[in-house]
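ugh ok so i messed up the first submission bc i forgot one of the chains. this is the corrected input, ALL of the components this time, i swear. 642 residues overall. if the numbers dont match what u have on ur side tell me asap before i send this to the collaborators (the ones from the other lab, u know who)
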Amino acid sequence: MKTKASDYETSAMKVMEKLGQPLVEMEDWYCCGAVQSLTEDDIMHQIAPIRTMCCAQEQGEDEVVTLCDMCYNVLRQANDRMKDKEDDLETMNEFLDEDPDYEGGVEVYHLFHILKGMEDEIKDAVEMPLDDLVVAPYYGCMLLRPDNVAVDETEDPEIMEDMLELLGVKVLENPKRTECCGSYHTVNRSDIVEKRVEDIVSYAVEEGAEAIVLSCPLCQFNLDFHQRATDFDVPIFYITELMALAFGLDIDMKNHKIDPRSLLKEKGILE
Amino acid sequence: MKLKKLTRDIDFMDKVEELSGQSLNSCIRCGTCAAGCPFVEDMEILPERVFKYITLGEFEKVLEHNTMWICAACYTCSVRCPRDIDIAKIMEAVRQVILRANIDMVDVDEVDNIEELPQLAVVGCFRKETG
Amino acid sequence: MTPDKAEDEGNEDVEMVEIFVMGKRYRVPKGLTIMTALEYAGYKFTRGCGCRGGFCGACSTVFRTEDEYKLKMDLACQTAVEDGMFLVQLPFMPAVRAMYDIEEVEPEEHDNILLDHYPEIARCVSCNTCTKACPQDIEVMDYVQAALRGDVERCADLSFDCIQCGLCSIRCPADIKHYHMAQMARRITGRYIHEHSDELEKRVQEIKNGEYDETMKEMVEMEIDKLKKTYEERDIREEG
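and heres the new structure output, hopefully the right one now
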């Protein structure tokens, strides 16, 4: 978020400020681990997310909002586990000996949860509707599965479509929007990710998509970076980037491998 | 692979069930997991075949195929299983049995393009493929 | 050397404590550091001992005190012996160290530079064991997390007091080599992030020109007492 996905952070910060609901970065936080550890006996890999919950508790907060889908998924799953399993929380607190005990009172939200209740503010903030742009929404896995942490219907989500329509863009139906992008296989099995990207992007292009919109930094990287192995060059936007453009805010878009500027100029969104 | 260390003194099925909290005997081999899996074409054997080998105690056959390493824990199978088996947890348990025997699937020093990769990809990969 | 050496010498005024070195019992005067106590007991340091002033990080040691379940870590030259202390000196840590050319690690161009050279930092689980082991009270876990985020400067700042003893690394469940990684962060910070110092450059040039050769030669040949006095009376000027 601070380096390879700084476009997401800066655009989200600007957008939320414009909407009158500015986000404040936590004073302290720890890398959640990106993927949730799923074995019953493993407490060790829950330490980092719960430590972040402790930080929130210490700062007097009872809500944490994440931008990253993977952070949302891990923090939420780890936090829910501590709430559901008293023994695990006790073991955790015994280990985290220098902190005050974590009481399980912090709730984890994703940016979408916040945006969901702000439809009117979003409508009001739109200065330049992105009328000509045709986009395919893409959710990936971490916002929707496992179903107990889903931000919307697991098999038929609409939350992103609803947001995008407020911005004026033409939203395509995209049945591939909940399929995995290949995730961490990008590290040592890029062949697998390339196949996933080919599948996801080609479907969107066939339907007429000019860009794909999402909210996960790893999906953004995979769909953007690994298109080099395909015949496509479809820009991959964070949803907050499109919001910023519609709100008339200046954004960098410096992390993109496939430069979205020519598309945006063609559509008259950028000069 | 250090098979001896893995197979010594453990009942593979018990271990997988204990780590995953799932019951393997609930599986009816319907194939819904494989049908929805976005990675299935790269798997040498289907998930339900993995379950079959585990229940039969044929862990060598599980270990010699790549299925659990291709699974990226996207949870598609878990949310669709008609028997409510959390398949992602079973795959994780199989991975953990191996990783806990000190057998890593990725050499952290051999990843050649770390500089291009976002941190969360590297963190995620090391979590799933090193012990 | 017998455990009762002090009594043998009739040194009854000194309060003695009992320590165990690698399982063997010794009685040593209270108030000694672990290092001097070991020497008192007859051990001679050939490795694992350096400046004796808490700066070089060579004398990392592991110990446990009576009625404590926790293993503690500290520097042998900075820690006083306690009655009932069980201790062991640690050998040199063969920790891996990354090779790099300082001219090719510009952090503006490489936003992942520490992770790239020390990929194992991605395995950090935030357990904080490293911070607890640190004899310098450094927030070790926090600087590893900063490194992972690509914040080289914060990593360098937080690790500034590190003396490279390596205790963090032998305790780490993720096999991270914190201290070498942080040294790289400090070197990058010094080379690219901190302001360039003209004074330093000027002084280096003066040294290269041999302007201090004479003074250096004098000091090397100086009597130890005079050298100490010269050191104490040295002229310290404020920066700028």
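quick check: The interface with chain C takes residues 1-4, 28, 30-31, 33, 44-45, 47-48, 51, 95-96, 98 of chain A (CB under 8 Å). that seems consistent at least. The mean pLDDT of chain A is 96.
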